[in-house]
Specification:
The chain is an alpha/beta fold. It has one domain (about 1-365): Glycosidases (TIM Barrel, Alpha-Beta Barrel), CATH 3.20.20.80. Helix content is about 40%, strand content about 15%. It is built from 13 helices and nine strands. The protein has helices at about 1-20, 20-25, 40, 45-55, 65-70, 80-90, 120-140, 165-170, 175-185, 200-215, 235-250, 295-310, 355-365; strands at about 30-35, 60, 95-100, 145-150, 190-195, 220-225, 230, 250-260, 315-320. An eight-stranded parallel beta barrel has the order 1-2-3-4-5-6-8-9, surrounded by five helices. The structure holds (3S,4R)-3-hydroxy-2-oxopiperidin-4-yl beta-D-xylopyranoside. (3S,4R)-3-hydroxy-2-oxopiperidin-4-yl beta-D-xylopyranoside binds near residues 62, 63, 257 and 331.
Length: about 375
């Protein structure tokens, strides 16, 4: 009888642990978030919304706040999807992150050219860029907690990306963007966000940028390490080095777009340049009928390696955001090769938590 009671108590305790969401454990130290899509925030995808509410205390828009979505024509703002997302976040007491104000990719198609198709002048582009920033940041003032102000301004070797913002305005487009965002909502946090952040060239340039922005009196609260990781990249030591380096510049560190690509990488692939495309072939899609247990265990271990780093560096980190909720909706099913079956997130295609979720919860409860 006594043994039965003990067993019952033990199973209730373990049920209790299962009932915990990631945010109940990880959230003791920093925000834990997910990028969400339009169906998830407008109520059409209830199973996903339930997972988001249980496990995450922060959200970011996967696409609907990007330039091409929110200002598809000059002066015509399309607010509906982003407003729904912000309402979902506010209703569920989540910390809402805005992504992103200035990015060469998914920029509005009209941004850089005049009606004759010629590139606009520096002054005109500054005007267009600042109007975009001012309009978005004021619209969500007091509701969006922090913004990715500039996304991906550097190449992996640390040189400046030759984007149209850079070519037309010059390197000070970054500073102008930060100043304008701060003016529009002085209380909002402001971030610089990029991929391949464990590479030395990028690390050094981003550190120099943070110092320069601070020296010029700009607000910058955190550096976002996107963390589109793979099974054998980045090098974990280099990744930790970057966390320390950014923190040493006097900003918080955020993992803003975490996922782990478990599929083979095409030759010459690296980073997370969304315009990279490689042709499909069957050998690059080995797990279309399911992930073998032996591989799944390696992915679990790889996730734990990252979360152990986050735990160790918890005083330097203010947020970890997964780039999606379940494997079903991950962008990595179609990038950099279209039509693959990938397994990069913490919830499977049926929205069930993978075993690693409990391991992460245990790690942060210890
Ligand atoms: C991706 C989205 O997930 C896709 O749906 C979209 O087609 C392309 O962009 N770096 C970023 C994110 O900052 O905005 C990108 O999101 C992934 C890489």
């Amino acid at each position: 009888m006594k043994t039965k009671a003990i067993l019952l108590a033990l199973s209730l305790i373990s049920l209790g642990a299962n009932a915990q969401g990631l945010k109940d454990a990880v959230g003791k130290y920093f925000l834990i978030g997910a990028a969400i899509n339009v169906n998830q925030s407008n109520g059409n995808d209830k199973p996903a919304a339930d997972v988001i509410k249980k496990h995450f205390n922060s959200i970011v828009a996967e696409n609907c706040m990007k330039g091409e979505c929110i200002q598809p024509e000059e002066g015509k703002f399309f607010w509906k999807d982003a407003d729904n997302l912000v309402k979902f976040g506010v209703d569920n007491h989540m910390t809402i992150i805005g992504h992103c104000l200035v990015w060469h990719s998914q920029a509005p198609h009209w941004m850089f050219t005049d009606k004759n198709g010629k590139y606009v002048t520096r002054d005109e582009l500054i005007k267009r860029m600042t109007t975009h920033i001012r309009t978005l940041v004021s619209h969500y003032k007091g509701r969006v907690h922090g913004w990715d102000v500039v996304n991906e301004a550097f190449n992996d070797d640390g040189t400046m990306r030759q984007s149209l913002y850079y070519k037309i305005i010059g390197p000070d487009f970054i500073e102008i963007a930060f100043k304008e965002a701060h003016k529009a909502d002085p209380k909002a946090e402001l971030y610089y966000n990029d991929y391949s952040m464990a590479k030395q060239g990028k690390r050094d340039s981003v550190c120099a940028l943070v110092k320069r922005l601070k020296a010029h009196g700009c607000r910058i609260d955190a550096v976002g390490m996107q963390s589109h990781n793979g099974m054998d990249y980045p090098d974990l030591k280099e990744y930790e080095k970057s966390i320390d380096a950014f923190a040493a510049c006097g900003v918080k560190v955020m993992m803003t777009e975490l996922d782990i690509n478990v599929l083979p990488s095409p030759e010459h692939f690296g980073g997370a340049n969304v315009s990279d495309r490689f042709a499909y072939n069957k050998s690059m899609n080995p797990y279309s009928n399911g992930l073998p247990d032996s591989v799944a265990q390696k992915v679990t271990q790889r996730y734990l390696d990252f979360f152990k780093i986050y735990y160790r560096h918890r005083s330097q980190i203010s947020r970890v955001t997964l780039w999606g909720v379940s494997d079903r909706g991950s962008w990595l099913n179609n990038w950099p090769i279209p039509g693959r079956t990938n397994y990069p997130l913490l919830f499977d295609r049926q929205y069930q938590a993978k075993p690693v979720v409990k391991d992460i919860i245990d790690l942060f409860n210890k």
